[in-house]
TrEMBL record:
A GO molecular function held by the record: nicotinamidase activity
UniProt-listed InterPro entries: Isochorismatase-like_dom, Isochorismatase-like_sf, NIC1
Family listed: Belongs to the isochorismatase family.
Gene3D superfamilies: Isochorismatase-like (3.40.50.850)
Protein name listed in UniProt: Isochorismatase-like domain-containing protein
Organism: Gossypium raimondii (Peruvian cotton)
Ranges where the Isochorismatase-like domain occurs: 29-198
Pfam families for the chain: Isochorismatase (PF00857)
One GO term (biological process): pyridine nucleotide salvage
Top-rank taxon, per record: Eukaryota
Length: 242
């Protein structure tokens, strides 16, 4: 898709992005969505970038920076890891992030979270992390994390803006509106630390059954829909004197 068309669509579907000042006054938790090798590391698998990708690299860098800052302040961090049983496919996607493989692990910049007491890691075998947090006994690991930490705002980052990030945000907003997540008030998506994959239309047309997925446009649409459902979208982050 030519960039003029993308510009036109962005004009017709504008997303105003704000700024956020993080401070001790509002208990904020960081939610990392699927910053795993299988989606982020070049050549790591069927759904990984085939060549270095600017949007994805920047998302990884920003996610790692935020995770360090949050853990440094002992602010709660929650990380979803896409992780599938080898015998249970996830249509329409090809096999990816099989449990126990490197694909299902956090990217190298974030692997330290595996041993970080401040972080809660949750493997999920579906797109929507809110649903993926439901345990056999009906409890929900994400809901319990919000309540236990008395979180008032979550800052959501990760991949893909229009898929796993979006579905998690939408479900979380519905759950918040049903008072299932008290005291959570704000669901905030930080656009710079979100990314999606690139499958341009000229490439997709030669792949049987593939759905075109132009990166910039789908990233924008993901943010647009999240905002429409009630998320705050921010493009700038700063920390009040801590
Ligand atoms: Zn998956």
């Amino acid at each position: 898709m030519v960039s003029a068309t993308i510009d036109l669509l962005k004009k017709e579907l504008p997303v105003e992005e704000g700024s956020l000042v993080l401070s001790k006054d509002v208990k904020t938790g960081l939610v990392l969505v699927d910053v795993v090798n299988g989606f982020c590391s070049v050549g790591a698998g069927n759904l990984a970038p085939v060549k270095p990708d600017k949007q994805i690299s920047y998302m990884v860098k920003e996610s790692a920076r935020l995770a360090k800052l949050f853990c440094g302040e002992k602010w709660p961090v929650f990380a979803f890891l896409d992780s599938h049983h080898p015998d249970i496919p996830e249509p329409p996607y090809p096999p990816h992030c099989i449990a126990g493989t490197d694909e299902a692990r956090l990217v190298p910049d974030l692997q330290w979270l595996e041993n970080e007491a401040n972080a809660t890691l949750k493997c999920k075998d579906c797109i929507d992390g809110f649903l993926g947090s439901v345990e056999k006994d009906g409890s929900n690991v994400f809901v319990d994390w919000v309540k236990k930490n008395q979180i008032k705002a979550i800052l959501v980052v990760g991949i893909c803006t229009d898929i796993c990030v979006l579905d998690f945000v939408c479900s979380t907003l519905s759950a918040r509106n049903r008072r299932m997540l008290t005291p959570l008030e704000d669901v905030i998506v930080y656009s710079g630390a979100c990314a999606t994959f690139d499958l341009p239309v000229h490439v997709a047309k030669d792949i049987n059954g593939a759905l075109a997925h132009p990166q910039d446009l789908m990233h924008h649409i993901g943010l647009y829909i999240a905002k429409g459902r009630g998320a705050r979208i921010v493009s700038e982050l700063s920390f009040a004197a801590l």
